[in-house]
Amino acid sequence: MTKTSDQNRIEHLRNEIARHDELYHRRAQPEISDLEYDVLKRELEELEKAHPELASTESPTVRVGDDLREGFESYRHLQPMLSLDNTYSKDEFFAFVERVEKGLELENIAFVVEPKIDGVAVSITYEKGKLVRAVTRGNGTEGDDITANALFIEEIPRELKGKGLPDVIEIRGEIYMRNDEFDRINAERNAAGLEEFANPRSLAAGTVKMLDREEVAKRRLNIILYGLGHCEPEIVAFQSEFHDRVRKWGFPVGERFWKVEGADAAWAAIEELDSMRDAFAYPTDGAVIKTDALSQQDLLGKTSKSPRWAIAFKFAAEQSETILEGITIQVGRTGVLTPVAELKPTKLAGTTVSRATLHNQEEMERKDVRIGDYVIVEKAGEIIPAVVRVLVEKRPEGSAPFVFPESCPECGSPTVKLEGEVALRCVNHECPAQVRGRLEHFASRQCMDIEGLGEAVVDQLAERSLVSNVSDVYRLTFDQLLELDKFAEKSARNLVAAIDRSKSNELWRLLHGLGIPQVGASASKDLAKAFGSVAALREASVERMIEIDGIGEKTAQGIVTFFGSEQNASIVDALFELGMNPTAPEIPSGEAAIFESMTFVITGTLPTMKRDEAKELIESKGGKVAGSVSKKTTYLLAGESAGSKLTKAEKLGVEILSEEELLEKVASESAG
């Protein structure tokens, strides 16, 4: 490999790992197993070691994965919340122990071995024994404040009981979803004709980051506490002592942990944990090994992303060998072509597997996957099964590389690979697969919120040619729905009623549901406020749209192009002919619009108001509430325990208001 090709590979790996980080940390929709992800990172680490001149502080090999998400307040950890180095190898584990012994100049060091829960890392802070916040790992330095959602977890004490409570303590743990709760939720979704969730970890991650508190309350989350962050004053000297202390405070801890001395005893504990973990009620994917003495942890220190005194040993995912009998191409709602392996049925993780994802063309070429190959299939963490390796030594003679289609298998249109993408894409807007995807998007909770109109129902409607675009949804009759599989009179009536109710949804939901390029929920709300109707938006120019804060020229041009399409215009006209009557947002004017053209950011805990209440008050007076501080911010509304946004506002010279000052402004301006 030449230096140039190494440099290209490093750049590619960084981009690909960043894409998987986005899927895992922010969207909770991983495409590949932990092992496949770690293989990519290992390759990148080796290349960066060989070429130190290409090192970057932005590389994923030196940074903690980032789960920060728009819509949540961020809070700085009192002590960095790092991620653990992983290993799948016994030899590498023993090498870790040797490094620890060398660093401490000791032998037979005491370790604690704990189950590695497959959930969402969280840090819970108590001050004077009272809970003040729950924060995700974030980027290791600061995380998202999820206190409002964490309060639904009954196992988290609101107040600590007992003697010797510290003034301030950060307790680290993992929010997870039990297997039985995961099964319950999926059974309900299946009965409602909705797509099932992929795995407990992704569902737990998605739930803690939901803004819909009512939906969070419907899902039971659990927590296990296992680590200590900042503590003032210090209360324990050993990790094993920490377990006993937090248990007495009422926190749930792991069912088992082992205090052992030396590498051999630690390895025996790891093997024992592996043999019993299937009986646990929660998903585990490995063991965490830590030096027991906190003083030794301090001596060993940390790298920029991981402690040197701990490591995660990841248990091998269950694998199975089978024959790849064929490859089919699926077309997603955005036109992306995804290769799927058609397998000779094989038992895997308690189920019979006959299909597995191959991810994309580039991954297939890298693994050199061919029809007729013997392959190793893996189902890690309940993720969709994937082909992880080809047994080239068993490859039949005469096999040939798979040739990706030059035309879409759904509609026959040419396929293209857009700049910066790894996937092939069908560019035909009328492709049946994309039509189904647009219908699912339109009916989703984030858009028109038509309960009962999920993927399974859309597929049936499309197969029976009952719908071809979103306007056809409003032509459906009770009798037509009654003929669908799993539909009885009650479910048919419920769906008819849900469709009818959606006609009067908020305007922004309709705009979002139309699938206009670059227009998400936030932009839809801004457009709804600015124009008040679909008719006004259709007539707007690019110049008029870019006057709206947050709407750029590319987005504006996309809107004009969308409504300029004869097909799209026909569908929108049909929606209104069929009774669509969206509710326009109430726009304050005159004396009521005291915050017109002003942008607020809210941070911290307000004395009497919830953040949603403060946001509604500001918007009712014509103001806009943004998620982050910038030069365009007019005011920062700051409460107790304000985080990094307060620091940034002070740096930029943004005026800071308390809740009392905000209410005084409202009262004085209204009176004036």
CATH topology of the largest domain: D-amino Acid Aminotransferase, Chain A, domain 1
Give the neighbour order of strands across the main sheet: 2-11-10-3-9
Structural class: alpha+beta
Total tally of structural domains: 6
Task: Give me some keywords for this one.
672 residues, alpha+beta, D-amino Acid Aminotransferase, Chain A, domain 1, 6 domains, 5-stranded antiparallel sheet
Descriptive notes:
Helix 1 (3-26) packs antiparallel against helix 2, helix 12 (432-443) crosses helix 13 and helix 16 packs across helix 17. The chain has a 5-stranded mixed beta sheet. A 5-stranded antiparallel beta sheet has the order 14-13-12-15-16, covered by helices on one side. It is of the alpha+beta class. The radius of gyration is 27 Å and the shape is globular. It starts with a helix and ends with a helix. The model has no long low-confidence stretch (mean pLDDT 85). The protein is built from 24 helices and 22 strands. Strand 15 and strand 16 (386-390) form a beta hairpin. It has 6 domains: 3-54, Helix Hairpins (Orthogonal Bundle), CATH 1.10.287.610; 74-314, DNA ligase/mRNA capping enzyme (D-amino Acid Aminotransferase, Chain A, domain 1, 2-Layer Sandwich), CATH 3.30.470; 319-405, Beta Barrel (OB fold (Dihydrolipoamide Acetyltransferase, E2P)); 432-502, 5' to 3' exonuclease, C-terminal subdomain (DNA polymerase, domain 1, Orthogonal Bundle); 507-577, Orthogonal Bundle (DNA polymerase, domain 1); 590-671, BRCT domain (Rossmann fold).
